[in-house]
Amino acid sequence: MAITLNNGFKMPIIGLGVWRMEGQLIKDLILNSIKIGYRHFDCAGVGTTDSALGEDGVLDIDTTISLETTWHAMEGLVSSGLVRSIGISNYDIFLTRDCLAYSKIKPAVNQIETHPYFQRESLVKFCQKHGICVTAHTPLGGAAANTEWFGTVSCLDDQVLKGLAEKYKKTAAQIALRWGIQRKTVIIPKTSKLERLKENFQVFDFELSKEDIELITNMDKKYRTNQPAKFWGIDLYA
Ligand SMILES: NC(=O)c1ccc[n+]([C@@H]2O[C@H](COP(=O)([O-])OP(=O)(O)OC[C@H]3O[C@@H](n4cnc5c(N)ncnc54)[C@H](OP(=O)(O)O)[C@@H]3O)[C@@H](O)[C@H]2O)c1
């Protein structure tokens, strides 16, 4: 199953996220996922990132390059045939609006955190209205990993998802992913386990009813679970 991007290219609705994966495990995992049918891989976080802090402990980034300049450089990659589609990530409505204003090539995708506890309906609808596909990163709310890493709770433990899982004879993860698909977002759940690779892919053989979608809509806690910048020692939202 694929979604057609605003430039006519297609992108699979489900992808595999590999952030927080052990380097050696990734190879086998990707080979197994290809056998299952995955054709979309999100490689964010593969490799190392140096600290973004200067010696004074303050965020040390180049302040002479704007996002617009970066975007035009990315457009250059499309013009020279090096990439087909370009997108943005973790852009809120204002950054997205700005990008729409200065771009010659519109972003094909905005990859943002969204799941039943952090639905971001305004941003999702805004992007979709302007032809930008929303890819949901952290579509399971990070499950147990975020409890461990960030001390947050996971939507997979919520009674609503558990109840729907029982009703549809699926797992809470499959319900969360199916909900993501039905709101027309692309989903990139991460797992390091073969069984879950299969489980997360088996979300095309059932459909949540309107009433059940409504139940999930009411679960929203506006609860951001994920702050990758914390690994570089900064809190982007402070
Ligand atoms: N653009 C960005 O800033 C950004 C930020 C964060 C993430 N991402 C991308 O989004 C991907 C997914 O995000 P994420 O890894 O943070 O969160 P996630 O996919 O919501 O959750 C991953 C966690 O869920 C567990 N899990 C996977 N399938 C499960 C299932 N069926 N039942 C129960 N638990 C399950 C995984 O454990 P096991 O591995 O043990 O199965 C892992 O602990 C990342 O890998 C990355 O590619 C992008």
TrEMBL record:
PROSITE patterns noted in UniProt: ALDOKETO_REDUCTASE_2, ALDOKETO_REDUCTASE_3
Annotated transmembrane regions: none
GO terms of molecular function: oxidoreductase activity, acting on the CH-OH group of donors, NAD or NADP as acceptor
SUPFAM superfamilies recorded: NAD(P)-linked oxidoreductase
Keywords from the named record: NADP, Oxidoreductase
NADP-dependent oxidoreductase domain span: 61-219
PANTHER family assigned: 2,5-DIKETO-D-GLUCONIC ACID REDUCTASE, NADP-DEPENDENT OXIDOREDUCTASE DOMAIN-CONTAINING PROTEIN
Protein family according to the UniProt entry: Belongs to the aldo/keto reductase family.
Protein name, entry field: NADP-dependent oxidoreductase domain-containing protein
Organism: Trifolium subterraneum
Lineage: Eukaryota, Viridiplantae, Streptophyta, Embryophyta, Tracheophyta
